[in-house]
Amino acid sequence: MENQTNILRQLRNDSKAAFRAIYDEYYEMLLYVSAQYLDNKEDAKETVQEAFVKLWENRRSIKESANIRNFLFTITKNNCLNQLKHKEVVLRSKESLLWMEMHYQYEALNRLGFSDLEFQELQDKISEAIENLPGQCGVVFKMSRIEQLRNKEIAEKLNISEKTVEAHITKALSLLRKDLGEYLSAIVVISSIFS
Fold first, then answer.
1. What domains appear along the chain, each with residue ranges and CATH number?
2. Dihedral of CA 18/69/105/111: which sign?
3. Tens of pLDDT, residues 5-35
4. Chain-centre distance for alpha carbon 8
5. Above 70 in pLDDT, residue 40?
6. pTM for this structure?
7. In 3D, which of 182, 173, 137 has the Cα closest to residue 158?
């Protein structure tokens, strides 16, 4: 992307080409971030689209010295927080493990600053920690969180009970929490990193 100041100047003058250049530059990164915290691809896409709509709506009030990436990230982050908060309310009455995971996601994202986001380093840490999960515990966790299979589907595929699946997931989360601390929330919902 050409000089950010020039792009912002053009955007402030209603340039659709400048908007498209910004969109092309940041869409995938924002979708990647959003998808880590929202368990629904359509919700993740919607939060990113809302960020770009807000950029366009506020284009004339954005200073030319503004950091486009941080602006878009902040909007996307806030959109994710709003979605997670809503889901948290809905899940409070449901299974406590699901609620706890959602709560960790919300809290981790709320504390996350853009400067802390080192994608490659995070990906490597997560990948290594998941690969170090013991035996069937690791298999079940990958099926649940990466392949996004339901507990019943995992139980059928591995010929084990759903309670055993839940126990493996609980154990995996505990091990990952010890290994990765505040990065746990990214692991709980991550799916697009490991292909």
1. 1-117 (1.10.1740.10), 118-195 (1.10.10)
2. negative
3. 888 889 888 889 999 999 999 999 898 888 8
4. 27
5. yes
6. 0.48
7. 137
